[in-house]
């Protein structure tokens, strides 16, 4: 049953050729797409949450998350170069493990891409609302440009309808429909803005680092059995800061010379982002301190809870990094550069849409491929005659993401998104080893070095981070998987193309 209805790799490639997307992306565009997908909410927003969970040891959390991603990236590079089509881990699983596990992986990718995009939409709206409420850095009286309070937050956050989160979701949807190459050009500009902002932060924060701010370095330890805190808990959360690099592989079908360019895009994007993250983490913790807030019993407060909000409201915690919704801008302001801090905040406002773009890009390409395989309605894989993009599924995904962003809070969305990503990474890593045994002679333009060491370590790393996710994220993941299996049994089980061929 595990390897039931396996779709041969040659057939996957043949199916892609029958209804293919236009190849128009080169290695530089792919690397920029990867960087654009990675650098965003994780580093601009979740740095404070990582600090609350682990203190200055969040630097170790960045390293752990980067190592797991790096191992997975090597596995992705091999299998993506062998199967250069859309669909990412879903497609690879279909060709290795069979239809059932492929569906589970594809369904889990919704957690990675769609929920991730929703979280970034909400995060972006928070930055913009803050900018408007402050009078756009003093250009007008504070409050003059503010939206009504009920339009600033979603219904489940105590507001009404998060208008800006909805609008950014709709705007990114339109951009994706009009063309991938156009999206890539816009993304390249946004990536440049983010890199300039991070370089400015590093240049100002590193000289201000003091060793006393890094003591105690690990105030919470490695973590606890239930997950959510400590270095490993922070790594499980900050993993969201790396999520998106695998979206490069979903663009394989729209890539020139994918056998060469996909590995370049994957590994290049991850390397650039890791260097930036380590420097940013060290600069933030070392310059202003990053000690977590605790309750009277000495227990670390959970980020995003009423208890945490109450602690942050105390005057003595007003300047605490862990209390900031815009940690990088906050650090620079505390260091005495308010104007530059405001510009960094503005850079986040301008650049975060590129993360939404790439997450929605990845989601639409996974659904496009599942539809092409018959597991979802065929209408979803229609390609626009002019723009050569899967417009139907792009519109549908964009509407759902936009409405959810308008209603729901960020909450535990990052952790929930990570749960789907970790499953996908683990399955790809296992798939590389299975193909090494079952199809050893198949051409591999890129071979994972020391595969029998790298891939098991990648799987172990994914399992370690999953265990250390919050309990809420684990429960949502389990419920989502059960729902997906029900939908597969009701629709895809009988309607997939492999099922129809078997019935003939």
Automatic annotation (TrEMBL):
Stretches that traverse the bilayer: 28-46, 58-77, 89-110, 117-140, 160-179, 186-209, 229-252, 264-285, 343-362, 392-411, 417-436, 448-467, 473-491
InterPro entries attached to this UniProt entry: AA/rel_permease1 (IPR002293)
UniProt cross-references to Gene3D superfamilies, sorted A to Z: Amino acid/polyamine transporter I (1.20.1740.10)
Molecular-function GO terms, alphabetical: amino acid transmembrane transporter activity
One GO cellular component term noted in the UniProt record for this chain: membrane
Keyword Transmembrane helix: yes
Primary residence: membrane
Alphabetical list of Pfam families matching this protein: AA_permease_2
Transmembrane keyword on record: yes
Keywords of this entry: Membrane, Transmembrane, Transmembrane helix, Transport
Membrane topology per record: Multi-pass membrane protein
Compartments it resides in: Membrane
Protein's name according to its UniProt entry: Amino acid permease
